[in-house]
């Protein structure tokens, strides 16, 4: 009986898998795109409702300009792979939140927020493209869905999202915010190490396709490293790569990203 249950569990997990674009990594997927996108719209509107949106027209215009270029790059990439269906249900939005947090995120379905606190570190459009392409990469790699699936498996025994929302609405909505990385004061460091590395990889390609120099990722992360607390924990105790590891990984991936880069 135990063997049968273990076999059934393995078959269930194997069937509930999807593949990350570009890297080809297999990931757990217990939540449909339609479900996660609908939940993201709801959570995004709630965040905007309870936040102070920036009235700085220059900053807002820059964020939307960079976002739209990255959006076009992502759509071009998926068309080139005949995988347009991967972006079905996307309704892109780019908003700027007036807040000192050095933060940015992208929910499933292309719902993006950039906090004004990170703009002094990004410094210019190219630096902003590093951040926004990285965050968009989390969304198109379905990291939020993956984390939501893991949470449902751990906390609700693999219960369907619709059922979890019905029986445990508050806990499930909180799980969604955690899965999307919303509410963290270090939005860029909210995912696990594998997901962060994957988002760096995809983000470099998307920003390059959008006409931004991917080499700018090195200087951005060097600036981030200079700002971080020197007493940060060792990498093996952390949920994200150390900046040194991240920079080294990016340097290895730059030759591939440069192939997509054409300055505008």
TrEMBL record:
<dbReference type="InterPro" id="IPR001915">
    <property type="entry name" value="Peptidase_M48"/>
</dbReference>
<keyword id="KW-0482">Metalloprotease</keyword>
<dbReference type="Pfam" id="PF01435">
    <property type="entry name" value="Peptidase_M48"/>
</dbReference>
<dbReference type="InterPro" id="IPR051156">
    <property type="entry name" value="Mito/Outer_Membr_Metalloprot"/>
</dbReference>
<protein>
    <submittedName>
        <fullName>M48 family metallopeptidase</fullName>
    </submittedName>
</protein>
<keyword id="KW-0645">Protease</keyword>
<comment type="similarity">
    <text>Belongs to the peptidase M48 family.</text>
</comment>
<keyword id="KW-0479">Metal-binding</keyword>
<keyword id="KW-0378">Hydrolase</keyword>
<feature type="signal peptide">
    <location>
        <begin position="1"/>
        <end position="15"/>
    </location>
</feature>
<keyword id="KW-0862">Zinc</keyword>
<keyword id="KW-0732">Signal</keyword>
<feature type="domain" description="Peptidase M48">
    <location>
        <begin position="68"/>
        <end position="252"/>
    </location>
</feature>
